[in-house]
């Protein structure tokens, strides 16, 4: 039986997001029966934040709609010039804008807290201000990515895209005790309230796991690009190798718990690489 397919027509202004081979016209996309319209569009490389209206067979459709076999999806560009809208939350913006605003807010707040420290503020006051700054950054990241994931998969059962999300970031160690200093790590645990499925059919576990990943990636990106935190002096140059070894150890433990033969699985994967996917890679001249 042939797999269901939809045809996606991307506006010329947005085709720069597509792979070069797909920029000439409509693109046929295989459907798995569970992916939402927003997921299908983003899987082609077009961020929903850059797209205008989405149409299915000529009719407006929400990102949470599930495309069916034979659907023709049209991704329109944003109409420009855009009309000014009333002031919105800082979270209703693109990821790059959010990172930039978090950086600026962090710089202003760290300067304010440092001046308080120099002017004689107590250590508990300084660490409390730094901890609450970190908490606000986490909240901004959670709210932003919760709305983004709701646009892709629909909100969790019993939840609204505007929140509350049912997701909590628990501060541990110095963050939990409001004792962060200017170079502390923020140790956290992510929890969500209940199992179920989103309006788009995604299990809550998967939805909230992706939310945790996105929040962590944003925090890491902001810190690496704009933060003052550097590698610790005692960290060896080979720390990347140790991180990879840690990952391998966890993978082996998981495989053992599921009674998976990793040697056999790896052999099957390499067979795909050298046969089915042999033409997908660009070979380097020797």
- At CATH level 3, the topology of the largest domain is Beta Polymerase, domain 2
How much β-strand is present in the residues? Answer: 5-15%
Please give the domain count.
2
Counting helices, strands and paired strands, the structural category is: alpha+beta
Which runs of at least 5 residues are low in confidence (pLDDT < 50)? Answer: 84-93, 224-228, 235-240
C-alpha-based Rg, rounded:
23 Å
Mean pLDDT: 78
The CATH class assignment of the largest domain is: Alpha Beta
Name the strands of the widest sheet in spatial order: 2-1-5-3-4
Please identify, by name, the CATH architecture of the largest domain. 2-Layer Sandwich
Largest sheet descriptor: 5 strands, mixed
**Total helical elements:** 7
Q: Give helix and strand order, one letter per element, not per position.
A: EEHEEEHHEHEHHH
| Net shape | globular
Query: CATH superfamily assignment of the largest domain?
Result: Beta Polymerase, domain 2
